């Protein structure tokens, strides 16, 4: 192998220039040099690999892969060939395969810093933190003067759950930086150091360290917040209170500081509400414009005190015309007494404003708009209590008072939606949209209601009023990763039983989350270079729990519902499906002809999976050749590729699996998992989901218990008697 790799001096110099051209991204120039070497040495593996990666970067992916594979075959012990192969897989976001290639590359050259660095980044992306520690340790040994290597090792230890070792590494690195001037990067490093001390659980050490670094830190607010937190944890109440009061004075609009002060003094307990009320009154007298303090004051106030405060708050909001008043007051509806006080006040205001134009009989005259916003509040109040007819009467009265206020029509549409009149709701929302054609929010709301009414084409036209004109509106929604639109359209297609397009929309949302996760890749190197380690660690941790987001759950529920429908449908031949379809005679004849040709290809032993993959590759190649300025062409607009799946239950479980890790306490998660596992006849896993469901919702668990009993009694495939005995015993133990 080594003799085949060696080149004469002239070609060796040319090959070094090839490598330099790749680093400088001069792909065409590098390709010419690689061809000049291959004319004389066509089997040279490393040159073949380099030519392959040049072609890949010049939008000739398939040809590039073939050359790289050929290069690896010709020189299996070349770290360059394996590194290039890894880079190709990494560019395609196939991180598992790229990791295997890097492992092979390091097997033949364990001291290559570039391969080690790329491998460490890849391991971080794959969350293989113990392996990252090994790779980063080697990088530190090879280049101990390079700061990002030290920081990378520190972060690796922290993410592996070893903050004490991370501290040791960081201290070693800081010794070399102690004489450097104060800068943002230095400030971030000091705060990151403090973060590590905090994670070890030693609050006193963290507080002491904070005092030593304060002069070097530019983020003064963070220092104050951390000091208050550490003092509170160390039970130094007086000092902590002073810090929280200082923070409140600097930003009285941030409710977190007020809540933390209340918690510090123990006033967040039920039996301390009077003390909390007094403290909040004092704070509100100092900062009367703070909405955060006002809301907390209403939360802790009771009886007459609450009535006095809420009266002032509601009257002020009605005079000013605050549309969000109901959303502010709704948080107190959990307390029946408070809810009754609020309802009594607003209903009374509605009567007196209509009769006398004031909040109280013989009171001061209020602006005419006060009645409008009072009616607006009452409509939402009645709608909240499902008194829809009453809500409709009030909102119609408000519209008659001021027929050009957009919010009134939006509320009317919402009431109609709650009444189950989705079509009418969408029409009213469209009427609201036309009152303000420049408002993107109402435009989006209107599109959402149209989708709820299954008016898909109208919704796409409506949302297209605010998208780019050179791109199809649906494609623009995809490019902007607009989750709500794709999810709602998916459910609309599901209701219309257009399962292919429904799955395409739901999978688009799943793909968004895959993209979110992949987008972090470039930050693994960037953040270490910029020393933004606190933000970097927070980002990695948030990425790990990202799929617990409600939007992902909603899309997952829709996709699983479609897959379960497909799995439950009786198997129908392609020709029978065409006969049942709503097509003309000519269309049926054409479709049947295609099916017969496909069946003939199958009889000739053509693997349909390989054929599909070949088609995908052709589509990828054709898409790559298109200029970025041209419109993208969707090769599967109807989502037929999703309908052709031979394993709908496996596809469904793949979507639900992240939720079982990230949102195990969600009822929806356990129900989705149970419904899939029962159909797969994975009884023990289904029992595990059922046991979890018992702790979350007993009534629903009872329903599912009957479902699994029926499924076990009538299995589709033979069940091992021992397994059936075990399952029956477990079912008997589940107490619902």
UniProtKB/TrEMBL annotation:
Q: Does the keyword Repeat apply?
A: yes
Question: Mind telling me which Pfam families this protein's record contains?
Answer: NatA_aux_su, TPR_8
Q: Which InterPro entries match?
A: NatA_aux_su, TPR-like_helical_dom_sf, TPR_rpt
Q: Where is this region: Disordered?
A: 589-644
- Recite the lineage of the species: Eukaryota, Fungi, Fungi incertae sedis, Mucoromycota, Mucoromycotina
Basic residues bias located where?
589-600
Q: Which UniProt keywords apply?
A: Repeat, TPR repeat, Transferase
Write the protein's name.
N-terminal acetyltransferase A, auxiliary subunit
Output a single Gene Ontology CC term carried by this record. NatA complex
- Single annotated GO MF: transferase activity
Domain of life of the native organism: Eukaryota
UniProt lists compositionally biased (Basic and acidic residues) regions at 615-635
């Amino acid at each position: 192998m080594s003799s085949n790799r060696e080149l004469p001096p002239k070609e060796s110099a040319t090959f070094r220039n090839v490598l330099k051209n790749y680093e400088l991204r001069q792909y065409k120039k590098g390709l010419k040099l690689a061809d000049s070497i291959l004319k004389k040495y066509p089997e040279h593996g490393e040159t073949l690999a380099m030519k392959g990666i040049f072609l890949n970067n010049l939008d000739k992916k398939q040809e590039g892969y073939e050359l790289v594979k050929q290069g690896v075959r010709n020189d299996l012990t070349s770290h360059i060939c394996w590194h290039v192969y890894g880079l190709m897989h990494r560019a395609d976001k196939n991180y598992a395969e790229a990791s295997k290639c890097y492992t092979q590359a390091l097997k033949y050259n364990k001291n290559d810093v570039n391969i080690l660095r790329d491998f460490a980044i890849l391991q971080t992306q794959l969350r293989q933190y113990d392996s990252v520690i090994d790779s980063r340790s080697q990088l530190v040994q090879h280049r101990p003067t390079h700061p990002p290597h030290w920081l990378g090792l520190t972060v690796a230890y922290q993410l592996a759950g070893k903050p004490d070792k991370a501290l040791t590494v960081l201290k070693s690195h800081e010794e070399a930086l102690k004489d450097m001037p104060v800068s943002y990067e230095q400030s971030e490093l000091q705060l990151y150091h403090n973060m590590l001390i905090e994670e070890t659980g030693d609050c006193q050490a963290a507080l002491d360290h904070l005092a030593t670094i304060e002069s070097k830190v530019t983020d003064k607010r963070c220092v104050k917040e951390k000091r208050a937190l550490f003092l509170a944890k160390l039970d130094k109440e007086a000092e902590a209170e002073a810090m929280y009061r200082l923070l409140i004075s600097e930003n009285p609009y941030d409710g977190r500081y007020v809540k933390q002060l209340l918690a510090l003094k123990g006033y967040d307990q039920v039996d301390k509400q009077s003390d909390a009320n007094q403290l909040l009154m004092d704070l509100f007298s100092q900062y009367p414009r703070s909405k955060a303090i006002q809301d907390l004051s209403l939360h802790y106030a009771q009886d007459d005190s609450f009535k006095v405060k809420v009266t002032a708050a509601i009257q002020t909001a009605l005079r000013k015309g605050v549309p969000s008043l109901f959303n502010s007051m709704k948080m107190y509806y959990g307390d029946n007494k408070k809810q009754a006080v609020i309802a009594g006040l607003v209903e009374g205001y509605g009567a007196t404003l209509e009769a006398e134009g004031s909040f109280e009989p013989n009171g001061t005259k209020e602006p005419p708009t006060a009645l409008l916003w009072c009616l607006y509040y009452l409509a939402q109040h009645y709608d909240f209590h499902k008194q829809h007819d009453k809500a409709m009467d009030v909102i119609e009265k408000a519209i008659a008072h001021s027929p050009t206020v957009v919010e009134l029509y939006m509320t009317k549409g919402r009431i109609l939606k709650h009444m189950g009149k989705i079509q009418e709701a969408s029409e009213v929302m469209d009427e609201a949209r036309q009152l303000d054609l420049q408002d993107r929010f109402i435009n989006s709301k209107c599109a959402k209601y149209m989708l709820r009414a299954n008016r898909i084409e109208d919704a796409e036209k409506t949302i297209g009023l605010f998208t780019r004109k050179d791109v199809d509106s649906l494609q623009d929604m995809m490019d902007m990763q607009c989750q709500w639109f794709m999810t709602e359209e998916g459910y609309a297609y599901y209701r219309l039983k257009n399962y292919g397009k429904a799955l395409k929309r739901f999978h688009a949302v799943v793909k968004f989350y895959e993209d979110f996760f992949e987008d972090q890749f470039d930050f693994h190197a960037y953040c270490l270079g910029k020393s933004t380690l606190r933000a970097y660690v927070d980002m990695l941790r948030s990425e790990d729990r990202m799929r617990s987001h409600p939007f992902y759950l909603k899309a997952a529920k829709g996709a699983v519902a479609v897959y379960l429908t497909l799995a439950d449908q009786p198997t129908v031949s392609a020709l029978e499906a065409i006969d049942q379809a709503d097509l003309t005679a000519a269309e049926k004849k054409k479709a049947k002809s295609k099916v017969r040709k496909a069946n003939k290809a199958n009889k000739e032993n053509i693997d349909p999976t390989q054929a599909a993959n070949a088609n995908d590759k052709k589509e990828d190649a054709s898409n790559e050749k298109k200029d970025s300025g041209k419109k993208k062409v969707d090769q599967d607009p109807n989502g037929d590729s999703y309908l052709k799946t031979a394993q709908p239950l496996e596809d469904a479980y793949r979507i639900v699996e992240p939720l079982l890790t990230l949102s195990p306490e969600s009822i929806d998660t356990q129900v989705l998992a149970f419904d899939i596992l029962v159909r797969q006849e994975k009884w023990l896993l289904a029992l595990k989901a059922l046991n979890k469901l018992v702790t979350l919702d007993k009534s629903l668990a009872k329903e599912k218990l009957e479902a699994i009993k029926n499924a076990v009694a009538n299995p589709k495939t033979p069940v091992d008697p021992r397994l059936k005995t075990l399952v029956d015993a477990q079912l008997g133990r589940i107490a619902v």
